[in-house]
Design brief:
Blueprint: H1 13-17, H2 22-26, H3 30-42, E1 50-54, H4 60-68, E2 73-78, H5 81-91, E3 98-102, E4 115-119, H6 127-139, E5 146-152, H7 158-174, H8 179-192, H9 198-207, E6 211-219, E7 222-228
Parallel strand pairs: 1-2, 1-4, 2-3, 4-5
Antiparallel strand pairs: 5-7, 6-7
């Protein structure tokens, strides 16, 4: 996830060039989140597994997965062309095992896939498209396949939201972000992003047909779940 205070964070060349610096600085336990995602997939994905990565731009998640599992293949989808170019660069020698698709979930192959991930992406999806997006992920998965999803998810209530967004900003400052920039990002997140409550996020998974929905990660304003098709 790039700086949400930018007007076009995923098409601006400077922002794209600095993308890799962002998630480790602004997402608590980012490296561990990716490791946990890998472990959750490894529980069920076979040696020749095929994995769908929604929001693949930048390639950080894909790089972790391809390095961990050299026999898996991947399809990555993202609406930002510049971020897909960066993903290809990030993947390096692992790129031949990854098919990158420009667009949204409807532009992804039909599958069926052995697993899917959506890391730091769903809070960018418009409210009226959120459920449909998760429905389409479910439709592309084999029965019993895992889906790992992590993004900003904050309890309802103005006071609680203010508290958690303030903690998010404080974390980014403690990680080296200038205070004014952190505050601008906090304001942009509150006004521009689609942030559901944890209960609402879990409901979208169940309404799509996923079962055994489990919270496996919580880092200040961020949460992550694993669920099964």
């Amino acid at each position: 996830m790039t700086n949400p205070s930018s007007e076009s964070p995923f098409s601006d060349p400077d922002a794209v060039a600095r993308y890799a610096e962002g998630p480790p600085r602004i997402v608590p336990g980012y490296a561990a989140l990716l490791r946990m995602t890998t472990l959750l997939l490894e529980e069920r994905v076979p040696n020749n597994g095929r994995v769908l990565v929604l929001g693949a731009g930048g390639g950080l998640e894909l790089k972790t997965l391809t390095q961990a599992q050299p026999t898996w293949s991947f399809d990555g989808v993202d609406p930002a062309a510049e971020m897909l170019k960066l993903a290809e660069q990030t993947l390096g020698t692992h790129a031949p095992r990854v098919q990158l698709h420009h667009g949204y979930i409807h532009d992804a192959p039909a599958g069926p896939f052995d697993a899917a991930t959506c890391i730091l992406t769903m809070h960018f999806v418009a409210p009226e498209e959120r459920q449909g997006t998760i429905d389409e992920v479910h439709r592309r998965l084999k029965p019993g396949s895992p889906f790992v999803m992590a993004h900003l998810s904050i309890p309802e209530g103005e006071r609680e939201r203010e508290t958690w967004l303030s903690r998010y900003a404080a974390f980014t400052v403690a990680s080296g972000t200038a205070p004014k920039k952190a505050e601008a990002a906090r304001t942009a997140i509150a006004s521009r992003l689609t942030i559901l409550s944890p209960e609402q996020d879990e409901a979208t998974l169940r309404d799509a047909g996923f079962t055994d929905v489990s919270l496996f990660y919580a880092g200040f304003a961020f949460r992550g779940w694993v669920a099964y098709a």
